[in-house]
């Protein structure tokens, strides 16, 4: 019986039950193995050079979608080509970047990861690892399925100083995505916040795209014990929001690539409910 037929034979519920039992028995051990492997094979100097004025664009990629990565890199280059910048690509050691134009200031930062199907990706470590190698004072941290819209750099030139911020994030159809959000607003929970409002004490910075000053991030890294899907962005936001004010730049925009899964489109469920609630609360003030 081949693998596909065997999966069909077992059924979804049986496979899920087997996976839960497997994780219960071996989960902690496999996670320890993965953590140890990644720590030992991804070493970086503890000595950091003073940050220069400019932009370090950090993109996290698996390298599985060349079109996404190329679109991200080219869009960043179009915005920053006449400035001091670098594009840091954190991805597999054998990542093919030969198709990217040589004129682009590209830095491939290989990240060695132990791929175990029951252990999620080391997203926190990748972000920390990449920022440690950034040389400019302003850092964008993003996944490769986003890209910069024209005018992004001009928007930040007008925006002024910040410590941690985000900007407008659009889905594939041009509708607003989770960019400027509340997480634990009293009586609301999660929802989109109007761009004109700021409630840092109830907000988080969504982890798939944000902008941060390099030295602040180095002093306040993401918790590396949290892997993909374990809320590393929520944990980081809660740890820093007592120290600073989050900011939103409405002049600059990024967008999801059109080929990304449908679940990324718009907002729904508790996010939509929360958005409506906070709109009513603010109207009544």
From TrEMBL:
Cross-referenced InterPro entries, in alphabetical order?
Answer: Nucleotide-diphossugar_trans
Q: What is this protein called?
A: Glycosyltransferase 2-like domain-containing protein
């Amino acid at each position: 019986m081949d693998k596909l037929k065997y999966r069909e034979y077992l059924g979804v519920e049986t496979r899920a039950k087997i996976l839960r039992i497997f994780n219960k028995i071996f989960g902690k051990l496999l996670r320890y193995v993965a953590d140890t492997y990644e720590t030992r094979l991804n070493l970086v100097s503890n000595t950091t050079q003073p940050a220069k004025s400019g932009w370090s664009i950090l993109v996290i990629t698996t390298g599985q979608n060349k079109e996404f990565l190329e679109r991200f890199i080219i869009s960043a280059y179009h915005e920053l080509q006449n400035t001091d910048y670098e594009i840091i690509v954190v991805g597999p050691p054998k990542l093919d970047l030969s198709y990217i134009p040589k004129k682009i200031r590209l830095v491939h930062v290989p990240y060695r990861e132990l791929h175990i199907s029951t252990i999620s990706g080391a997203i926190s470590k990748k972000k920390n690892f990449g920022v440690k190698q950034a040389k400019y004072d302003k850092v964008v941290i993003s996944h490769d399925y986003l890209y910069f819209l024209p005018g992004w750099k001009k928007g930040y030139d007008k925006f002024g100083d910040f410590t941690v911020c985000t900007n407008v994030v659009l889905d594939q159809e041009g509708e607003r995505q989770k960019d400027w959000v509340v997480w634990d607003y009293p009586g609301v929970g999660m929802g989109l916040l109007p761009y004109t409002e700021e409630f840092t004490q109830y907000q988080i910075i969504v982890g798939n795209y944000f902008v941060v000053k390099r030295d602040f991030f180095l002093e306040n890294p993401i918790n590396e014990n949290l892997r993909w899907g374990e809320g590393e962005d929520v944990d980081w936001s809660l740890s820093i929001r007592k120290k600073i004010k989050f900011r939103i730049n409405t002049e600059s925009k990024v967008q999801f690539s059109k080929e990304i899964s449908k679940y990324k489109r718009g907002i729904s469920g508790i996010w939509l409910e929360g958005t409506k609630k906070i709109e009513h609360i603010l109207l009544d003030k």
